[in-house]
Amino acid sequence: MGEIVGAALVSHHPGLMQDDDFRVHMGAGADSDLIAGYARLRAKIDALKPDVLVIFDTHWFTTGYHLVDGGAHYEGSYISDEMPWYLHGQRYAYDGAPDLAQLCQVVADERGALVKTIDEPTLPRHYATINVVNRLKATERIMTVGNCQTAKTRHFLEMGEVVGEAIRRSGRRAVLLASGALSHKFNDLDWEQSNPRIYHPDNVSDPANVRSDREAIALFEQGRHDLILDRFPEYRAIPWEGLGGHYLQMVGALGGPACKARGEQLSDYENARGTGNVHMWFEVQR
């Protein structure tokens, strides 16, 4: 019998992959606390000894189906087509979890969910997976789940249920990683920083988004996922990154509105080009 042993909302923004001196320079003499937050998050994972990390990738946009990465191994060098001057030369190598991916397909077929498991070595990688892998992976296998842009909130929750049931049947110990930001409205091309420390929340694109993000963080800490889901039309309209599909699939796997997992903030709440970023750990009751 497999189990979900932990879960987290994790930032993946490209600035976190720059060299230390550059990050400190951009932080007006101090590094992003999301970097130290990765170490705090890794300590949580180490304590649980999972054998697979399931990454809900907000950059793997899909259409028509939820997609699950069923490949056995991936390695190469990544360059972002979004910002090739900034995010390039990212070497990666990791093993997939094809057994778990195929179980996702079995469960989806039983339930009539629109899911396809894809085993194709040339399937492109996305930095919402690669950055998290390169910052967090130890020996675990990796299974990535896409973000279907035609999905509504209920579809994301249903897909999370599929992943959760597949994990239970698999015999694996899994940590779920929802890879993405909260509010995800970028600053304009010619924006000027409000605060010299680029990571400061004053640089988030809209003060209303900061307030909303902080309210959501407080609800996470209380384990009130039911209230988060009640308010989700508001979060989707802001919008949260990837329509919030990363969070919704994660919490769907944890029981949806019945989930009571309390969140622990493992980093400061920070800006990234106008978006609101934080690492949140969710203690899963077993």
UniProtKB/TrEMBL annotation:
Domain Extradiol ring-cleavage dioxygenase class III enzyme subunit B: 7-280
Gene3D superfamilies per the UniProt record, alphabetical: LigB-like
Keywords noted in UniProt: Dioxygenase, Oxidoreductase
Gene Ontology MF: a single term: ferrous iron binding
Pfam families: LigB
InterPro entries, per database record: Xdiol_dOase_suB
Protein name in UniProt: Extradiol ring-cleavage dioxygenase
Source species: Phenylobacterium hankyongense
Lineage: Bacteria, Pseudomonadati, Pseudomonadota, Alphaproteobacteria, Caulobacterales
